[in-house]
Amino acid sequence: MLDLTSLWDFDDPAASENRLRRAIRGAGARDQHILMTQLARAVGLQGRYDDGLGLLAATTAVDAEVAARIHLERGRILRTRGLLDAARPEFEAAAAAAIGCDEVHVDALHMIALDAPPEVQGALHEEALRIARASADLRARDWDASLLNNIGMAHADAGEWHDALAAFENAWGARERQGDAGRTRIARWMVARALRHLGRTEDALAMQRSIKVELEAIGEEDPHVDEELALLEVARRGHSR
């Protein structure tokens, strides 16, 4: 099975582009088409939108998964370019074509949800989560953390902090299962932020302090953690008066 994860660093799309170009040269015919869609994404992330769209136009939809990925990556480039009305039909076409390819199906639903009206975002994320959890494909199942975070954000935006906390706690558990320390820290930060909004100052403070200690141990800083700590200290002083 083609491992796309090892080829991607979303913080460095130029390096990803180089790895993808090398991988294409040594790949079989079908895998080359899949890799071309990823190359288009890497190029688009660097602002070379026309080049990315050109790569997709030159990619042959040899089966349903490749067709779905072409639509998905075309939609992403159009969305990044600010053409939301043109992007949405591409994401919808990707979701329709990806039946039987759960990873792409979930990804497409997630992209549709990002720009959907607030009243339907939740249902789209829940549908994507249902597919991810029921999938036999580990790559699809590992979408649960991102989807749970998005569900939590939707609740947070609506001021529904108890529901947000439940979703963020589930996302934290999913991140721990996946074993990515950096993303797990972000998931914990989301839980702590929800705790602050629920007035659970001491719990939130303890969690943010533990994240700060971990960051210091690896020589990193996160201004979002520092901001939350400052807000929590103010709240704590207010409670002590």
Write a brief caption for the model:
By secondary structure, the protein is mainly α. The protein has helices at residues 13-25, 29-45, 49-57, 64-80, 84-97, 102-114, 118-134, 138-141, 144-157, 161-178, 181-197, 201-217, 223-240. This is Tetratricopeptide repeat-containing protein.
Polypeptide structure, described:
It is a single chain. The chain has helices at residues 13-25, 29-45, 49-57, 64-80, 84-97, 102-114, 118-134, 138-141, 144-157, 161-178, 181-197, 201-217, 223-240. It starts with 12 loop residues before the first helix and ends with a helix. It folds into 2 domains: 1-100, Serine Threonine Protein Phosphatase 5, Tetratricopeptide repeat (Alpha Horseshoe); 142-241, Tetratricopeptide repeat domain (Serine Threonine Protein Phosphatase 5, Tetratricopeptide repeat), CATH 1.25.40.10. The protein contains 13 helices and no strands. This is Tetratricopeptide repeat-containing protein.
